[in-house]
Design goal:
The complex is a heterodimer of chains A (about 500) and B (about 110).
Chain A (H helix, E strand, L loop, with lengths): L7 H16 L6 H19 L8 E4 L14 E4 L1 H24 L6 H20 L3 H19 L5 H32 L4 H10 L3 H19 L8 H7 L2 H26 L5 H23 L4 H28 L4 H36 L10 H4 L1 H14 L6 H15 L3 H25 L17 H16 L6 H7 L1 H8 L5 H5 L2
Antiparallel strand pairs in A: 1-2
Chain B lengths: L1 H19 L3 H23 L22 H31 L13
Helix pairs in contact in B: 1-2, 2-3
Classes of the chains: A mainly alpha (about 500), B mainly alpha (about 110).
Chain lengths: ~500, ~110
């Protein structure tokens, strides 16, 4: 029965994006009610899907079933990995939408903000659940075009410049992806991911496939801001309104970048050693480079944006190590551990980086600046922001009771067991530099001499901004429970299985 | 085969324009050229030597049809291209109003 609910993830936000600008003409607060409500419903639905009756749920759009074993229509597919992404996207989306209610008092055009927000969520949900390559491209474009507009939402000099940079690089990346998809269609004559996967295992046209894989790594790598392609991310993520920064850093680069790489390279292509090694090296370079660029920043949101590159490097490193071990037929338990670490860190990163951007937004909302040298003593003015920010900082730099510690520990353990000693060493060093960088943030922003004496003017953030921060701070602690095996088996193990057993995705779709 | 290679060269021409040009509008045009080369490539992939339009009516079943799927894809890509180009040009006009120039060397408030 749950199959029939799958298209809701796309229909509901799309309908919201359509209705909000129209009804807001007559009832101006419609957007701020409808958008968080839609996200709350989708969050509940996403969590419900963890307890689905079959491992892979398939919805045939328009009722176009298989014809003689060949998929003719487009399928929406929800498997272990998809449901994990859906839950994270909609949960962070709900909290960001709720946070925006007060935050948007600084801006005009509230209805357009919430309409674009819904459109972006519809695109990301679509990327995650679609089973068709061209459909994936279409949803990807929906998500990123909405995000271009949202980055430029402030229409000041910096926002416009950042948005233009983001659009040019994003447009080139989309065309690389499209070129890759076109060549896949040329070679195989089908666009269905499952069908392509089976056909590629029968035929042998490896020369062309290497070219396609490089194109797709470049395209999705640009979307995920891995290091040779990272130039747009610090500008775009620091210029956007803070709830949108939280969505971009917390969710968008995962849904349209890393998720697409995982889905296509595990479940569609046959793995080979060189490409897997390339992905691992890109992850390692991002991890080290991102943190080195972050240390010298004095703009709080810019610093957080560089840390996003570094933390996504951890995720790609975990995934890449799993691919390398699988491609040489190594120990599958170690590969599972590496992939588990990568996915776990991805979930954790969505939570703590979302929280850090919301904290930065609260500081900017109250004080009007985000330059660290102009701040000081804020823990007296904003005790809640200071304490939630402290828990997120400890999570991102890997201090024990918080979730970031466990995921980093698992990635490092997997690296040692898989004999990637250099990567393990670099991961430890990067974690220490991250800690130093966040100690700087707390030293300059929250402790020290209070600069803002008037407590009435510079007090705590309003309720709608404080609640999402508290929820995310509790999640920073609560997600540590995912290391306990019985909890892990519900939430993360199905996702790891979906990636490790590469044909588990294709077989139910083709009814083999 | 020569047609496919020409298509790919057109793609690279657009990419070259995006990378080397300094004028904001010329960068947008470079992206448009890349997009058109992709549309051409998609249509070429679906082309069959001596094929006819894939409209099934009585009497013409089982003839040599061209592949209709890439044509549907091209239509979608054109629509998406319209959205991206409109968005790019809207931002370019705003950039010109704020900065007073189309030269990207002079639009550099963000760095580091």
């Amino acid at each position: 029965m749950m199959k029939a609910w799958i298209p809701i993830f796309v229909i509901l936000p799309l309908a919201g994006a359509f209705l909000i600008p129209i009804i807001s003409r007559y009832f101006s607060r419609f957007g701020r009610i409808l958008a968080p409500l839609i996200m709350l419903i989708l969050t509940g639905l996403g969590i419900m899907f963890f307890f689905r009756e079959e491992p892979v749920l398939i919805y045939h759009i328009g009722g176009w079933k298989l014809y003689k074993g060949i998929p003719v229509g487009i399928q929406f597919v929800v498997d272990g990995l998809g449901v994990l992404m859906l839950a994270v996207i909609n949960l962070v989306g709900f909290l960001a939408a709720f946070y925006s209610i007060s935050y948007l008092s600084k801006y005009t055009g509230e209805k357009y903000f919430f309409a674009l927000f819904c459109l972006m969520v519809a695109g990301m949900n679509g990327v995650v659940i679609t089973g068709d390559l061209f459909n994936l491209f279409v949803f990807l474009e929906i998500a990123v075009i909405a995000s271009y507009a949202l980055v430029a939402f402030g229409i000041e000099k910096e926002e416009l410049e950042a948005s233009f940079k983001y659009q040019v690089l994003g447009g080139v990346a989309s065309l690389f992806v499209l070129l890759g998809i076109a060549i896949i269609y040329w070679q195989t004559g089908t666009l269905n991911i499952a069908d392509v996967a089976m056909l590629l295992r029968e035929s042998d046209s490896s020369q062309v496939l290497v070219f396609v894989q490089i194109l797709l790594i470049a395209g999705f790598g640009l979307k995920a801001a891995m290091i040779p392609f990272h130039a747009w991310l610090p500008d775009a993520h620091s210029s956007a309104p803070s709830p949108i920064s939280a969505m971009l850093s917390g969710v968008l680069i995962k849904a349209v970048g890393v998720y697409a790489i995982m889905r296509l390279f595990f479940n569609m292509f046959t793995m080979n050693y060189e490409i897997s090694m390339l992905i691992t090296v890109i992850g390692t370079v991002s991890m080290v480079g991102g943190v080195l660029l972050a240390v010298g920043q004095w703009d709080l949101k810019r610093l957080l944006a560089y840390h996003s590159i570094s933390q996504m490097g951890y995720v790609v490193l975990g995934i890449g190590m799993g691919m390398v071990i699988l491609s040489v037929d190594g120990n599958r338990a170690v590969a599972a551990l590496a992939i588990f670490g990568g996915l776990y860190h991805m979930v954790n990163h969505a939570v703590f980086k979302g929280l850090l951007f919301l904290n930065a937004g609260a500081i900017e909302y109250k004080t009007g600046t985000r330059m660290l040298r102009e701040l000081g003593g804020l823990s007296e003015n904003m005790p809640l922001t200071a304490s939630t920010s402290l828990s997120a900082s400890m999570a991102i730099s890997g201090i024990p009771p918080f979730n970031g510690f466990f995921s980093k520990l698992i990635i490092i353990m997997a690296a040692v067991q898989g004999r990637f000693y250099l990567m393990a060493l670099l991961a430890v060093i990067v974690s220490i530099i991250t800690l130093a960088s966040f100690m700087k943030v707390h030293r300059y922003a929250f402790s020290g001499v209070p600069r803002f004496k008037n407590k009435k003017l510079f007090g705590e953030a309003p309720f709608t901004m404080a609640l999402p921060m508290v929820v995310l701070a509790l999640l920073c602690l609560g997600l540590s429970l995912l290391v306990i095996p019985s909890v892990r088996n519900i939430f993360l193990t199905p996702a790891v299985d979906a990636l490790i057993n590469t044909l588990n995705y294709a077989k139910p779709i083709l009814e083999l | 085969m020569i047609l496919y290679i020409l298509c790919f060269i057109l793609f690279l021409v657009g990419l070259y324009g995006v990378i080397t040009r300094r004028n904001v509008i010329k960068i947008v045009l470079g992206i448009c050229i890349m997009e058109y080369s992709m549309n051409l490539l998609l249509v070429l992939i679906g082309y069959v030597e001596g094929g006819i339009a894939p409209i099934v009516v009585k009497g013409v079943e089982d003839t040599n049809f061209v592949d209709p799927l890439p044509q549907a894809m091209v239509l979608t890509v054109i629509v998406i291209g319209l959205a991206t180009t409109a968005m790019l040009l809207a931002i370019a006009i705003r950039v010109y109003k704020k900065h007073g120039t189309f030269d990207i060397r002079e639009i550099k408030n963000l760095k580091g």
